[in-house]
Amino acid sequence: MRKSNAGSRALALVGGGVLLLAGVALLVLPGPGLLLVLAGLLVLAREFPFFGPYVDPVRSRALRAAADSVSSPLRLAGSLLAVAGLLAAGLVWVLRPQLPFAGWATGAGLIGSGLVLLALLVWSHRRARQTQPDTVPTDAGRPPAHTS
């Protein structure tokens, strides 16, 4: 029993740490940084209570950023262009061996980032559509506006 508890804590530390570090790196690189930071904190907080207080602020910030990324057609188009750019760059890095760090590892990393970003955009878009009210609120019960 003691060994499995230590094993799960070690697994949470390694897995959560990798997610957290990858998320921090993706805060400045193209990718879903805040969502990976949140995932890392969630994994770590299950085994280490020290990380618990950081989950809710990061969760609200990550969900707000996800909603912002699809809040307007222009932002959605920009995000989709980023997806297309990552996928294209991945293909170029795979097919052009003279580029720095060329090869399957770099190309797959870029393509994977593009696919993760696309999946997160689809999730964010669906989530935003579910949280929008179905009807436009009316002015029922309000006094008429005075115009002169």
Textual characterization of the structure:
This protein has 148 residues and is mainly α. The chain is built from 5 helices and no strands. Helix 1 (2-26) packs antiparallel against helix 2, helix 2 (33-47) runs antiparallel to helix 3 and helix 4 (73-95) runs antiparallel to helix 5 (104-131).
Shape estimate: flat
Number of continuous helical runs: 5
Helical content band = over 70%
- Give the topology string: H per helix, E per strand: HHHHH
Biggest sheet, open or closed, and with what strands and sense?
none
Number of strands: 0
Radius of gyration in whole Å, from Cα? 21 Å
Report the average pLDDT across residues. Answer: 80
Supply the helix-strand structural class.
Answer: mainly alpha
What fraction of the residues are assigned to beta strands by DSSP?
A: under 5%
Q: How far apart lie the N and C ends? A: 79 Å
* Low-confidence spans: none
Task: Please provide a brief summary of the model.
This protein has 148 residues and is an all-alpha fold. It is built from five helices and no strands. The mean pLDDT is 80.
List the defining traits of the structure above.
0% strand
Could you outline the blueprint of secondary structure elements for this entry?
Layout: H1 2-26, H2 33-47, H3 52-68, H4 73-95, H5 104-131
Helix pairs in contact: 1-2, 2-3, 4-5
